[in-house]
Amino acid sequence: MNVLLLDGHPEEGRLTTHLLDTYAAALPAGAEVTRVAVRDLAFSPVLKHGYRQRTEWEPDLVALAEKLDACDHLVVAFPMWWGAEPAALKGLIDRLFLPKFTFAYHVGDPWWDKLMQGRSADLIATMDTPPFVIRWYHGNPLVRRWKGQILGFCGFAPVRTLSLGPVGENTPPRNIAKWEARVAKMARSIRQKAPQKKQARLAAFLGKETNP
To answer: Reduced to 3 states, what is the DSSP secondary structure of residue 86?
Structure first.
């Protein structure tokens, strides 16, 4: 199994990185693990032309696209700030999750093809608000958006989510041992919904696919 771990925290050495360390250590033997930190990538987070014209990828985005295309399972971890992911991670999704690579709109109807089918995903979000408040008072928009409008929209299935909090800026989390156990359990129980549907998509997207 090829597992891609994506660290969305702008600073190294934070809780997000520790949780991904825990996840990686708990993966089944034989898993092929690739780790990428958004903070280490050189790219513009601005999708300058929208979908009207392709904004060419920087070398780091090409390399990450190769890893995403190859993976069987994606793990994204980040802190929730102002109800969403950090800006660089949002920009990365804008630039990387493009039509004809991760999804494809139909012509003549409102539907689309989910080009990331055959891959699964886990989302780990830390937050200073207790998760039950986010669910009950705000309707859990962060999780609903990532699960339904980003990862699920592109075909990742199942998409499992883990919301961990509260995490204070200067207060170590009291429940860290429980959180580590939950993250480890997640890593030990990966299952793709339909692994036979996985197809490589990058070569066709880049126009490098050749006919036999």
So the answer is: coil
The Cα 106–Cα 195 span in angstroms is 23
Q: Give the least confident one: 33-42, 123-132, 133-142.
A: 133-142
Q: For residue 190, how many other CB atoms are within 10 A of its CB? A: 19
Amino acid (one-letter) located at 33? V
pLDDT in tens, 25-42: 999 999 999 999 999 999
What are 211's two structure tokens? 């006919």
Angle at 70 between CA 69 and CA 75, to 5 degrees: 85
User: Residue 26: which H helix or E strand, with range?
Assistant: helix 15-26
Which own/partner contact pairs does 171-178 have at CB distance under 8 Å and 24+ positions apart? 173/15
The rounded distance, in Å, linking the Cα atoms of 111 and 163 is 30
Output the CA–CA distances (angstroms, integers) from residue 209 to 61, 106, 160, 204, in the order listed.
19, 21, 33, 5
- Which two three-digit tokens encode residue 11? 């600073």
Residue 128 CA to its chain's centroid (Å): 21
* pLDDT for residue 48 is more than 70: yes
